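Design a sequence for this backbone.
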């Protein structure tokens, strides 16, 4: 491959990633929970249609004593993704009050299965899903 062909190929690769907006992003989730024994984990991130879907799991460690005071839990991950609107889905909520965070609470991943099948997986946690 001559130098001009190599430069053209490298320019095309650079241009295509810039146009698509694919860059390393940090995605974070913050959730108000009933007590300090709760934790949240970003489980998967998908590109679905023209959105980034962040699927997180929230769970309470039954062996952990948490102060009985409303608390905030957080998680964040870095991955390469285009600059698209973000939609959060949370699995595992068991308390009865309405959260103010603009998230969609679901029972399990099966609720999103059909849409996720046509999307693109961008990130998957190494941690087991609760």
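Sequence:
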């Amino acid at each position: 491959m001559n130098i001009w062909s190599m430069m053209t190929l490298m320019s095309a690769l650079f241009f295509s990633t810039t146009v698509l907006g694919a860059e390393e992003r940090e995605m974070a989730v913050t959730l108000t929970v009933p007590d300090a024994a709760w934790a949240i984990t970003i489980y998967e991130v998908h590109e679905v249609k023209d959105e980034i879907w962040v699927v997180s799991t929230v769970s309470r460690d039954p062996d952990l004593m948490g102060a009985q005071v409303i608390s905030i839990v957080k998680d964040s991950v870095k991955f390469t993704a285009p600059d698209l609107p973000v939609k959060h889905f949370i699995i595992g909520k068991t308390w009865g009050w309405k959260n103010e965070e603009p998230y969609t609470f679901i029972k399990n991943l099966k609720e999103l299965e059909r849409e996720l099948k046509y999307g693109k997986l961008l990130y998957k946690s190494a941690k087991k899903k609760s």
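Helices lie at 3-20, 113-117.
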